[in-house]
Design goal:
Helix content: 55-70%
Structural class: mainly alpha
Strand content: under 5%
Number of strands: 0
Order of helices and strands: HHHHHHHHHHHHH
Largest sheet: none
Distance between the termini: 46 Å
Radius of gyration: 19 Å
Number of helices: 13
Shape: elongated
Length: 196
């Protein structure tokens, strides 16, 4: 399939020039196996190696089998700050499914270096992208995001608005009392009212 071919190309790029296969090269090649058990074990090996070269392949891999997706996302999060640069590039330029997974991983990693890209994603045309970006920004919990989140209090998407309120609650700042109180009085969305 087209996705499998794209995965093969990304894996070849990550491996680089072939030489004596090290653990990274072996695990990357096993990502192409048709047996999901082998693929999951390869993902777990890449998780332990914590090599950021695997990030894009792991995200592509996650577009298929839900169990592989879960293990691949965990591996990316385990790579940690080393994965942030690759994830930010993916958020800026890739397929929507990859963008959402990259945003989720950035939020779970919690590195403030990702905030500029996540702030841009807060204004994406797709509500799902905005909603996940809001959640990721909230997980990072930086006061640097207050104005960005406050600007979304008028978002027409209910999920985005609910996530904004939840994210603002995670950032302790007395300046939030007034906008959240105002939202409470004007919102008819039960979840927003509960959170505000």
């Amino acid at each position: 399939s087209d996705c499998r071919e794209k995965l093969r190309v990304v894996i070849e790029k990550a491996i680089g020039t072939p030489g004596d296969p090290d653990g990274f090269q072996i695990a990357m090649k096993q990502l192409l196996d048709r047996d999901s058990t082998v693929v999951i074990e390869a993902v777990r090996a890449l998780r332990e190696l914590q090599d950021a070269r695997a990030v894009e392949s792991l995200l592509l891999l996650g577009l298929g089998d839900p169990m592989v997706r879960l293990v691949a996302t965990e591996a990316i999060v385990h790579i940690g700050s080393g994965a942030v640069s690759s994830l930010m590039q993916i958020v800026q330029s890739s397929h929507r499914g990859q963008v959402l997974d990259a945003i989720i991983a950035l939020g779970r990693i919690g590195d403030e270096a990702a905030l500029p890209v996540l702030h841009d994603a807060l204004h994406h045309t797709k509500g799902a992208v905005r909603a996940y970006a809001v959640e990721a920004v909230g997980r990072i919990g930086s006061r640097k995001s207050l104005s960005q989140l406050l600007s979304l209090l008028d978002d027409e998407d209910q999920v985005v608005l609910t996530n904004v309120v939840g994210s603002l609650r995670a950032i302790p700042d007395p300046r939030l009392v007034r906008p959240l109180t105002a939202l409470l009085s004007k919102s008819s969305i039960p979840e927003v009212r509960r959170l505000a």
